[in-house]
Known about the structure:
By secondary structure, this protein is of the alpha/beta class. It has one domain (11-231): Vaccinia Virus protein VP39 (Rossmann fold, 3-Layer(aba) Sandwich).
Amino acid sequence: MSDFAYAGGELGLFAKAVNWKRYWFGKIQPLLTGDVVEVGAGIGANAPLWAEAKFDTWLCLEPDAALAAQIPDYLPAGDRRFRASRGTIADLDPAARFQAILYIDVLEHIENDGAEMQAAASRLAPGGRIIVLAPAHQWLYTPFDQAIGHFRRYTRRTLAAAVPAELLPERMIYLDSVGMLASLANRWLLSQSMPTGKQILMWDGWLVPPSRWLDPILGYAVGKSILGVWRKAQ
């Protein structure tokens, strides 16, 4: 097990983005069944959302020791489906197989994303899925991306290229078209290395709701985040 230490300090800020979390969670909730592993779970702030899904077991996997130690504080009290562990996909029992493996704003932090996706694919049960949510468009890369350890942002093409060819693509969509305006402002005007809490709440409260209405009209072809789902053949 490595001595990985996460460089970012934004996890507590984005934990307050409840509209955004509800938005993307609604897209993947029906897929969260059976045994699930959340790679790079951070402080476990998404656990209250996960508890609404109909899965059997949920493993919050986090390589940073300080972050992993905080996960139990966020897990729903008395929900024995959850457990937390420090480590990466490579540290799991080689015989373990999962119905869903999640990378929620995580894959962009991994330098060799192709090797990571290959390792994840090898841990899927037949019919299991890899689900990736990541920041979109390299031309939106900002000092904020650099400050929190992003190696890249993704397009449909570059995200698909990281996933093993034997997995079957099920969905590849962009989310938060209106939020792209905020990202553009930061890219060209503010160049901030870290948003403020007020900015997070403003984006979540004022930009995410209209995105939920506009994104389907635009065919999910525009947005500052990308969501991809791939399935292993039965």
